[in-house]
Amino acid sequence: MYPFFKCRFLWLAIWYIASTTAAEHPYRSPYSVAYSPDGKMLAVSDRTAGVLTLIDPDACQVIRHIPLEGEPTGVAWPVDRPFVYVAEYNAASVAEIDPQAGLVVRRFTVGLRPIEVAVAPKSGLLLSANNATHSVSILDLETGNQLAWIAVPGEPFSITLTSDESLAVVSHLIPAGRATDPQHAAEISLIDLITRTPVTTVKLPAGSSSVRKVLTSADGRWAYVAHTVGRTSLPTTQVARGWINTNGLSLIDLGQRELVATLLLDHPMEGAADPWGMALDPDGNRLYLSISGGHQLARIELATLHEYLAGKLPDKHPLAQKQPYSPGSESIWLRIKQDPNERGGLVNDLAALHSADLIVKKQLDGKGPRGISLAPDGKRLAIGMYYSGSVLIVDTASWQIAHTISLGQSRDPDLARLGELIFHDGTQCFQQWMSCGTCHPNNGRADGMNWDLLNDGIGNPKNAKSLLQADQTPPMMWRGVREDMIHAIQKGFFFQMRQPEPGDVEAVGVYLRSLVPEPSPYLDPNGNLTASAERGKGIFLSETTQCAKCHTGPLLTDQKQHDVGTRGLIDQAAIFDTPSLIEIYRTAPYLHDGSAASLQEVLVDKNRTDAHGKTCHLNQEQIEDLIQYLLSL
Known about the structure:
Elements: H1 8-20, E1 30-35, E2 42-46, E3 51-56, E4 61-67, E5 72-76, E6 84-88, E7 93-98, E8 103-109, E9 114-120, E10 125-130, E11 135-140, E12 146-151, E13 156-161, E14 167-172, E15 187-192, E16 197-203, E17 208-209, E18 214-216, E19 222-230, E20 245-253, E21 258-264, E22 275-280, E23 286-291, E24 296-301, H2 302-309, H3 332-338, H4 352-355, E25 359-363, E26 369-374, E27 380-385, E28 390-395, E29 400-406, H5 415-423, H6 436-439, H7 441-444, E30 450-451, E31 462-463, H8 485-496, H9 504-514, H10 531-541, H11 547-550, E32 561-562, E33 576-577, H12 599-605, H13 620-631
Antiparallel strand pairs: 1-2, 2-3, 3-4, 5-6, 6-7, 7-8, 9-10, 10-11, 11-12, 13-14, 14-15, 15-16, 17-19, 18-19, 19-20, 20-21, 22-23, 23-24, 24-25, 26-27, 27-28, 28-29, 30-31, 32-33
């Protein structure tokens, strides 16, 4: 994959040189992009450089960099407003920027780690999807006052509004609930902006996770969602058939509040690893989608797709012809033509979009396309290439890359940066079905799903673990079958990905070692334990509960295996690794099989015999205090 890095010693030499010059230039990492309403300017959030970059797309040059607080992520450039808005991930704020003056005018205080922002200019509202607090903030755009704080499930990631500003649609990166539920999947939240209250959630197909961009149609009838669809009940021996992870586009009827269909972006011989950003053309006929792990751009013939989903496949279309060889062999589109209720089968059809000529893909120059934005006239598409530090401008008529615009000088990648790229590179997998980041999104954390990885036999899936501080907590996996992190990475390449190039394993290891815990949203504003958490800490450390007997040391694990009474019917053994409790606030569902949706279930419902610490004697108030302490870690 990287021929100039095939020598391990060369890797180490580059790492040394890069470490001595790291302070000279930041990495350039375009995360989100947004055209101005008149199409004359492009705003790009540069996450690692900590700036908003303004670009003249006609002259193909950077106008200015505007320093921000924290890591800039989502960008919104609304019509009828002279400002552009940027989520500041680490600062719990949204910056309002005057692009002409190049200045931050003011900041809105929102929830911890906002990932995307939306603006309703006619209603005078600003909305923020707060990843860490599982919430959406609704603020008055003029005063900055918070009007509503709405709890939502599973790490909100993307937020969009209907054109009449009556409804907000929110995607969630990971699912909430028990991973043992056969229908375990991420959801889409719908929020009424008139009453500023939640309406409902729409569940995606079983196995759906890593849900990123969501868009709504101009008429407000449809929502489009990009996400992965894990086949978590299958062992990883199926990866060679492209069938442990697929990548989908879901269509939601906002009027009926229901999922209409999920179509696979993959081809039978090539996956579309990690779909990320989306854009709709002005007339709604086409949808553009970035395939981040495959470094591709996809174009969906949306108007035709809606016709086919409604059962209106033309009679003379080749797919409408019955096949002569066997009953039931007709195309999925013919079945839908005969009965639109057959749309549910699309989620299991790798060829549906391609066979109907509804999708075309383009390989891009660079690595890691994420945010994309279409110019108001629909003629140009801007794509942020995260690992290349550039923005590509694609001519939508010719389907060719017209320009490549660098965000600025970037330092040479060190091993951590190279490891991060490899970790999120779907081409490392056979036929590009997935990347390491598919199951470990959000910087190496976990997707909330159970996977049958075969490291302890077949037929007993385990919940994905966060890889934070994995180098410090050997042995690895729930059964401790890998002696350390490097061996686990090697086996991950061997069983789920493909033969790594020399140096790849070491680079991924350096990347994982670079991950640091993010402060808990359950701490008080000064970063200290709340009064309830302080009481819970005393309970945790007490001899009567014995929690600290196994969860000990700075990482709160004795790195041993124990029988804590959680063995299930399909488990081949009763002892499991003691996980670290660092960042436990974001690692639900809990236990080796993800069978506990909350810490309440871990401490009470799953611990009736006091095998997992002594908690049966605690009253509900003490349980709540203990939970508050754990969530603060």
